[in-house]
Amino acid sequence: MSNNVLNTKELPFCKGCGHHLIAQNTAKAIEELGLNILDVIFVTDIGCHGIIDKSLNTHTVHGLHGRSVALGAGISMGLPPEKKVIVFIGDGGATIGLQHILEAARLNVNLTVVVHNNFLYGMTGGQLSGLTPKGFNTIITPNGSPYGEHDICELVYTAGANYVSRVLGIGDYSETIKNALKTPGFSLIEVMEICPSYGVKFNPKRKLQEIVEAANKPIKTWTNHRDPFVFPERKIVSNLFDKTPVIEHLNKEKILTSQIQVVLSGSAGEGVQLAANILCKAAVKHGYNITQKGTYPVTVGVGFSNAEVNISPDEILFHGLSNPEYVIVTSQDGLDFSKNTIKQMNEHQWILIDKSLPLPETKAQILSYDFRGKGAKNAVISSLFFFAKLSGIIETDTLKAILSEMGMLEKLPLTAIENELVLVTV
Amino acid sequence: MNIHEKKEVILDDSRVIIEALAQAGADVYIGYPITPSNAMYLYASQRFPLMLPAPDEISTLQYMSGLAIVGHIPVTATSFPGFALMVESINMAYMMELPMIIILTQRLGPATGTATAGAQGDVALLKGMISGGHPVPVICPSSIEDCWHLSAKAVEIAVKLRTPVVILSSKERATTNRNFDISKLPPIKPLERKYYSKNEPYKPYEYNETLVPDFLPVSNTSHQVRITASTHDQNGIIQHTSEEAMKNTIRLEKKIFKYLNEYTYYEHIQNNSKQLIVSYGVSANAAQEAVKILQKNGRNTDLLIVKTLIPVSEDLYSIIEKYEKVVFAEDNINGQYAKILFGEKLPTHVSFVGSIGKMLSPKNIIEGGKL
């Protein structure tokens, strides 16, 4: 294959369109830099500029409207820096995909973006874009766009691009493209053009240079000197299961003959899910199967937090809220959340509730203790000791061993818990 | 050391899926946080060789596509709001024929709905998300073993068929902890990828009876590669509706069906009954329990747990047609999978039991299904 970037002199654009020059100048820049054309990947998208693909001898990728910069960024991230990824995009694509451009500039991805700014969407009939200068006529705004326009160069420069340049789409500007291609990291060239079909038609008396000057868009170059993107070094594990501690069975006799459910109802930020996890570990140590399902609002540190724990000597299939044998309530949020469940409980079931809370209406047996007296953050974990003593399903020593392994035992007012635990009679 | 020594741990599906994908050869994770998929993002950040936070879900899919074009196997996890943003880009990846895995953890909709409540409400969307109606394989695990084996299979079919594959989960499976003996999960052999290696000129979308074109990354310097999301011929050149291009577009659908029997997964639990529950994902667990309860009461019921939801395998119809009474159990209010199989009006012997805002329970299935 020849080392010509373009495979034809007949480019697929309208007569007089500046896109010819962009393709020719980019081709010249690549050829003069002596790049292997198969080290070059052109990424284009939807818009007149995107039909260039078939005229190129390089690799070509043709994506979605406005997404070519993100697509090109993905390609570039996976390639060594000597590869050149060049994105062709229109002003419409730059508008819909503005965030992709800013992000690629922020990350300083090795990428050269050429914005074909002809002030409108050519392929769809000449509508205005976010880069259409105020006052420029389009089919939608025949008396001039009433809106201001983005300065794409200033935006990407501020976002951290290493090389940014605005050129008039006239004559030979291949040197500028060469500079962009030679610069490590993100570069962008905004080529100013007038669409010969719609731009000229709706703005017959205006000249390109005058439009650019009226829009106060200087022809200039901006540079930053930031390190280009590389995937950062990270510490990773070779197996995620290494992060899940193996739980050894204690070979205790199992008192449960069928599945039960324990519900922990408290407040977010008070360790409800953590306590449920500790309860699960204890139950597994005692030879049971468990499931632990959390129910909580989208907020993180406020509102209720509920954990539904199933404990069973057999395989657990359905793990949702059923008819819990034990409900442990450690805060008003928890009580509010579980009040309907509690109402439906029967006389064989148990509620362990913090003594500061009003006793709910229920047929279940109620035991009231001072869980919160051990500190709000300790309330739920403390309640597990009472559950252990009351139910006999797990032992308090098992809880202590788990908490000790987790470095949490010292933080617990164990004496206060044990003093009150004496009062629990089964 | 005995390799089958019991190793009991507490874990969730998210961990198992991510580990399985990594072992199978998926090597880059692009993340955008969204509940209830955040655990997968965290685990992937600890496990995947390459990881990048994306600024939004459109960028996520675009980065993934770019990385797939250079030969990576990318993964992301999301839920409906993010998935909705991804749909156009999934169409792009489908048209470009790029392998990737998208984990969709369902939550309660519409729109933002409730991020922390489970649901199975996105199945209808998955069925119709490709313009033209082409199917994207959707794999739906309903156990830890499924998460392990089917996630690995998802990577295999994504690469073999050159297509995005969706692993469908839901809040109530992805984030629920359970004890499990991980010694039961055999190591997964990483996938070996084969690229086009002939000396003849490479046509990026040329195909033979396999219906899957040979892949070559754009990092190669031997052959020109053209990748496109627009209607194209075998050279990857954009076409209007030429015969060659239309054949190519039709092939995209055909290739997904061609290999369906290689990735059709279901579990048919037979108790010699004339009635059948059909379910998937987390609701299948409720259905398993329902079957157990019914059995205890002397009322046998069969169960079909569907694990390859899309495309629909003929096998499902062959099983279902044997029953006098069929009950679909799903965590939605409209019987989305039942309708995928039977259309808007279900046959008289087919009914649906659903739930909204809380998990479909065995009791719901038994009572609602009049089983």
H and E order of chain A: HEEHEHHEEEHEHEHHEEHEEEHEEHHH
Distance between the termini of chain A: 88 Å
Could you give the count of β-strands of chain B?
A: 15
Strand content of chain A: 15-25%
The neighbouring-strand order within the major sheet of chain B is 3-2-4-5-7-6-13
Output the CATH class name of the largest domain in chain B: Alpha Beta
Overall pLDDT metric of chain A: 95
What's the helix count of chain B? 12
Instruction: Tell me the greatest interface.
Output: A-B, 66 and 75 residues
Low-confidence stretches of chain B: none
Fourth-tier CATH superfamily name of the largest domain in chain A: Thiamin diphosphate (ThDP)-binding fold, Pyr/PP domains
Written as H for each helix and E for each strand, in order along the chain, the element string of chain B is EHEHEHEHEHEHEHEEHEEHEEHEHEH
CATH C-level label of the largest domain in chain A? Alpha Beta
Q: In which order are the strands of the major sheet of chain A placed?
A: 2-1-3-4-8-7-9
What is the radius of gyration of chain B?
21 Å
